Amino acid sequence: MKNIVIIGGSKGIGNAILLQQLKNNIVYNISRNAPEITHANLKHFTVDVLQDALPEIEVIDTLIYCPGSINLKPIGSLSIEDFRNDFEINVIGAVKSIQKYLPVLKKGTNPSIILFSTVAAKLGMPFHASIATAKAGVEGLVKSLGAELASVVRINAIAPTITETSLSANILRNDRMKENMIERHPMKGYLKPEEVANMANFLISEDAKSISGQVFEMDYGIVTFKI
Ligand SMILES: NC(=O)c1ccc[n+]([C@@H]2O[C@H](COP(=O)([O-])OP(=O)(O)OC[C@H]3O[C@@H](n4cnc5c(N)ncnc54)[C@H](OP(=O)(O)O)[C@@H]3O)[C@@H](O)[C@H]2O)c1
User: Fold this and answer.
1) What pTM was estimated for this model as a whole?
2) Tens of pLDDT along 111-152?
3) How far is CA 107 from CA 82, 96, 186, in A?
4) Which of 5, 7, 13, 44, when mutated, tests ligand 1's pocket best, judged by the most ligand atoms within 8 Å of its CB?
5) Which of 100, 94, 133 is nearest to 115 (CA)?
6) Where are the annotated coiled coils located (predicted)?
């Protein structure tokens, strides 16, 4: 039984991870709202990761940081504040969580960290300047910390394409937009949060003990293929 800290398990990808992991592990969820589910293996802390102190947790094997943003605007409409906000929630929140829990995590079993990037960090897409910049920061963190913590703690990122969560609700707000999104991807699809949770499940497992410092594109081909 692992002790898993999820920052952002109340909804979206983090919630899909939480629901999978609860069956066999202790899950500590940290978010501003509680997850809908209650379970003997779940402990929730109502915390804003940017504003509040993070709770003390005594045993941790896995840390998963999910908060992120999709703030798509032309460069002329993006304020400096937009860039700062995207950097804060995507990078600084992750750094704060890692710094807080690393001493405990280092004593864990097969300890590892999962962060989230996006396909837009690799594939140039119009209007993604702010989020692509922030997620490039996440990918840099994964590379650097992967090396720094190499013999002790593994750290990897998942870089999903569009995933059906509340974060992307505006981009997938009607059937026509959903069909267009499927068509844009060479492998004809986009992600459900459970698919991303399956990847996280593998990356935190013993089967992934050789893997650190990597960014995994889950892209339905949009970064990888030109057809
Ligand atoms: N969805 C996509 O299409 C997509 C595509 C590429 C990359 N990603 C990345 O994947 C990750 C997960 O995305 P998602 O779609 O699952 O997002 P989501 O549905 O918005 O869920 C984000 C989670 O983070 C929590 N959270 C947000 N701000 C917080 C704060 N200040 N303090 C504490 N908790 C906070 C939210 O809970 P509360 O609101 O309860 O605090 C929620 O549980 C993000 O990093 C995102 O950038 C998503």
Assistant:
1) 0.98
2) 999 999 999 999 999 999 999 999 999 999 999 999 999 999
3) 37, 19, 43
4) 13
5) 94
6) none
